[in-house]
Q: What sequence folds into this?
């Protein structure tokens, strides 16, 4: 026992003095350069004299390392690092053939370049493996991968064969910190860490079963998760590594900042300008620049839907294109623009100066159990939103409102005009008029309205600019609060001419009302409005200037029974004062 202990002590003392002599920093630095050069196919250089430590494991540290750009073809890997560390086996080092593992690059700049040189020999082991797959010899791949490799605060540049930003510049990924585990070239690879993506610090977890196959342009199963303050994204399925890109798998995305996310993706739409949170989950397939989600579950704010969604990403020459067919249970748009004119102005393309990005093309087909707006709630809705380079159109093809129905078509043209066509039947008048952004002194729970008009934009600022159109309406029992019709008719029974103030208004009850008219700028023309009251029928024809209050009208009141004569009035005036003159009409009742 004493001899064994003494031998162990002597061996330890000998190792303490002899290992640093045999395993010198200079020789280990040379060995590390040779291994890197052999794997990457280019001269590797370690700056200065490396440092060696033996606890807790033998390790070499070089304060500066660089790999020159290889001269061959295929996938090139080169760059530099402020610091490089690697573990090594002590017995291999003593024998003069050290094996390095667990490399760590600190503040490195690593370039992945697809050289794309026809006929050139593969520059390194990775390029050889890629070439073997492209030549149909995947079974011949037999090589060691990078093993465990760590990056700290590093930058990765990806360049070659159109992988840049479209101007020939490489795609840059900054602040990369994490661990790559890739033992065999023909095996799986895993990266876990973080990087700056789209300006946001992002957590990354990526596993691919056949990374070399993806580098060769083929497909592999992929499991990817990205998470940052802007959004969380996950994908599990098949993906290809080169254009035309291909995806087929399950996908999920959630965000609490939809506006920022859409801007980063180059997908802009004012239809969702008030929405913050959103999520998307389902099956995704990609071919080239086109993404198809089907089936997919979509949540926008508090609204949820299922259906199919297609997105064609923007290019330098074309905006993004979005098309979808979605079935919503409920859509709540309380935060949207509360009136039609303000909604139209929001939809208008405001890029008159040419400095803004073109808005995305849209083709959305939507059904919903309910659509809750600021003032009305539609049910059983079938609608579409279509935007082209010329206009945005919104159509409600079918919907129920109150005890009736509503149909609408709104076209917002980029040339600066809007066209509206609306049909409502048996609906409450007040909420509808508020939603339309118009003031009408008519209250009824059974309004039928046909309205067609066009105007220049913006409507809220230039409401009457270029305005023209016509309307027709009918309503059940209710009241009209325009002038003081009861007082005017009572005065006309005892006076042939009198003055009154249009500012004095009082409700006039009716059993039914119907009429038609037209719009031309600020001029509202009434063509035969008939009001059926309890005791008389009143008709009104004339014009009102909605800007100045100027009024020219003819009012006729005919008793519904008896032989009392009717009353006919010519009215003229303005918003402050008006004059009425009685004219003769034949005696008789309204039924005559």
A:
């Amino acid at each position: 026992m004493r001899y064994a202990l003494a031998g162990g002590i002597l061996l330890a003392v000998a190792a303490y003095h002899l290992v640093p002599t045999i395993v010198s920093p200079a020789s280990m630095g040379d060995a590390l350069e040779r291994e890197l050069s052999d794997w990457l196919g280019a001269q590797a250089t370690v700056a200065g004299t490396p440092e060696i430590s033996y606890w807790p494991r033998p390790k070499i540290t070089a304060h500066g390392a660089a790999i020159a750009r290889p001269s061959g073809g295929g996938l090139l890997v080169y760059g530099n690092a402020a610091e490089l560390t690697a573990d090594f086996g002590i017995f291999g080092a003593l024998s003069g053939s050290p094996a390095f593992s667990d490399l760590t690059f600190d503040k490195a700049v690593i370039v992945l370049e697809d050289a794309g040189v026809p006929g050139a020999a593969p520059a390194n082991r990775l390029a050889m493996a890629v070439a073997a797959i492209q030549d149909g010899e995947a079974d011949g791949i037999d090589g060691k991968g990078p093993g465990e490799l760590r990056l700290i605060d590093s930058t990765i540049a990806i360049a070659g064969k159109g992988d840049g930003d479209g101007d020939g510049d490489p795609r840059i990924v900054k602040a990369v910190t994490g661990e790559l585990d890739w033992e065999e070239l023909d095996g799986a690879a895993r990266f876990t860490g973080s990087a700056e993506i789209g300006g946001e610090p992002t957590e990354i977890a990526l596993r691919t079963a056949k990374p070399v196959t993806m580098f060769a342009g083929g497909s592999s199963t992929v499991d990817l998760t990205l998470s940052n303050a802007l959004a969380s994204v996950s994908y599990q399925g098949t993906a290809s590594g080169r254009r035309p890109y291909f995806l087929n798998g399950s996908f999920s995305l959630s965000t609490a900042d939809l506006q920022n996310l859409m801007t980063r993706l180059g997908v802009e739409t004012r239809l969702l300008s008030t929405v913050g949170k959103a999520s998307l989950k389902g099956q995704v397939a990609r071919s080239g620049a086109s993404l198809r989600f089907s089936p997919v579950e979509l949540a926008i704010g508090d609204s949820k839907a299922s259906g199919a969604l297609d997105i064609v990403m923007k290019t330098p020459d074309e905006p993004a294109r979005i098309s979808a067919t979605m079935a919503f249970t409920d859509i709540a748009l309380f935060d949207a623009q509360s009136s039609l004119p303000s909604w139209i102005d929001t939809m208008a393309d405001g890029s008159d100066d040419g400095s803004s990005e073109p808005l995305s093309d849209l083709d959305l087909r939507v059904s919903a159990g309910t659509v809750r707006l600021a003032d009305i709630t539609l049910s059983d809705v079938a609608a579409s939103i279509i935007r082209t380079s010329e206009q945005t159109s919104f159509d409600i093809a079918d919907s129920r409102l109150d005890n009736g129905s509503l149909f609408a078509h709104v076209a917002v043209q980029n040339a600066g005009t809007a066209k509206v066509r609306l049909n409502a039947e048996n609906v409450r008048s007040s909420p509808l008029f508020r939603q339309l952004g118009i003031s009408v002194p008519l209250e009824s729970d059974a309004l039928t309205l046909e309205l067609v008009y066009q105007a220049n934009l913006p409507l809220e600022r230039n409401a009457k600019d270029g305005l023209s159109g016509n309307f027709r309406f009918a309503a059940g029992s209710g009241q009209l609060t325009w002038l003081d019709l009861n007082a005017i008719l009572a005065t006309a029974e005892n006076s042939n001419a009198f003055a009154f103030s249009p500012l004095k208004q009082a409700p006039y009850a009716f059993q039914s009302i119907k009429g038609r008219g037209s719009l031309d700028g600020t001029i509202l023309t009434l063509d035969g409005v008939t009001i059926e009251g309890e005791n008389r029928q009143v008709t009104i024809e004339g014009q009102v200037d909605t800007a100045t209050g100027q009024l020219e009208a003819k009012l006729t009141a005919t008793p519904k029974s008896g032989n009392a004569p009717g009353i006919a009035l010519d009215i003229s005036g303005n918003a402050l004062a008006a004059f009425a003159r009685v004219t003769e009409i034949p005696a008789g009742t309204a039924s005559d």
In short: The first strand starts at residue 44 and ends at 46. The mean pLDDT is 84.
